[in-house]
Amino acid sequence: MKSLSLLRFLLGLICVVCLATSNAALAQKIRVGYWSSGLSLGQGAVMESQKFLEKEGLEVEWVKFSDVNQPLRAVALNTIDLAFAAPSAGAMAIIAEGAPVKIVLNTHIAEVQFVVLDESPIKSMTDIKGKKIGMSPPGSATHSLGTALLEFNHGLKLSDYTAVPGTEGVLAQFLAQKQIDVAAVRSTTVAQMNELKLRRLGNYTDEWKKLTKTNSPPILAVTIVHSDYLAKNPDAVAKFIAALRKVNEFGSKNKAAVAEVLQKAANMPADDSRAYAAEWDKIYMAAFEPSDIATLKRQAGIFKAAGSLKQDPVEAGFSTDAYERSKKIK
Fold it and tell me: Does 86 share its domain with 224?
């Protein structure tokens, strides 16, 4: 009897080991990159720390970038497979140029504010003429959208003001030190600048709706995938999209947990991390319905008219297959 019990135990142990080995072998590898600042910081930090991708059966290699445009180049050069929070303007520019890249998801709403110090003589958007305005570097969606909105809504061309590039933290510092007159910064940054008395001139969403006569918000960032990886691993990309959707749901329901993650992952002060987490529902999305693609194409047309995009992105650059597959993943 003891021999029989031992045999059963060993057989059971072998089954467990085989199952674990099988699951490891089935895990799909994916190299995921993102800009470790701005709005992508929150999503990325939560996704990594809570292992949302691993829970979907993905074996992840994380690659973080210090420049907002680097993930675009990395996917195009196939040094990573996928980048989320890639600038929508830059993504459409590289697919227009024929890069082997597909846009598979809209991820961030352009929740950007035009702010000045409260004592500033600037009272309206038209007063920006002749002034210094800080915004993300050229190539970013924040820059492309901002310059287009200033031109088409307020008649201000790039030659009418000085655009000062910088990261969110740098722009906040420049404004506080009066090195710039206006800052176009994300709502998370505005929320963290509570030591300054600021006045809001406007925001991208209202300006976009005024320009396009629609209710759809502008898209700041998208998820892009190398074409070869998508063709060979459509289910892996679908799993990523499903995981990102769950990340957004988690952040919406667990603001305190998000703040804690940001304190640990980004060494963010407690007050700043709570302010960032409070903006979660305003900035993140995970959608790629026909209306979402239509918004991107409308943006491309406006970018082209403003001169920040040379040609229209090719239709094949928008791929919905992985998004549709993700809907079946619970």
Answer: yes
Decide if 210 contacts 116 (C-beta within 8 A).
Answer: no
Residue type at position 251: G
**Structure confidence at residue 243 as a pLDDT band (50, 70, 90):** very high
Helix (H) / strand (E) containing 302: helix 290-306
Residue 8 banded pLDDT, cuts 50, 70, 90: low
Do 99 and 243 share a domain, yes or no? yes
* Structural domain includes residue 243: yes
What are phi and psi for residue 24, nearest 5 degrees? Answer: -65, -40
Decide: residue 266, CB within 10 A, 0-12 exposed, 13-18 middle, 19+ buried.
Answer: middle
235 and 318 fall within a common domain:
yes
Strands, sheet with 132-135, edge to edge from the N-terminal-most edge strand: 162-165, 132-135, 182-186, 112-117, 198-203
Nearest to 128 by CA among 156, 148, 149, 151: 156
Mean pLDDT of the chain, nearest integer: 91
Q: Are residues 179 and 158 in the same domain?
A: yes
User: 69 and 120 share a domain?
Assistant: no
Tell the burial category of 270 from Cβ atoms under 10 Å away from its Cβ (0-12, 13-18, 19+): exposed
β partners of residue 60 = 30
Is 280 domain-assigned?
yes
Residue owning tokens 């710039």:
180
Pick from 212, 238, 261: which residue ends a domain? 212
CA-CA distance, 258 to 274, in Å (whole number)?
A: 8
pTM given for the model: 0.85
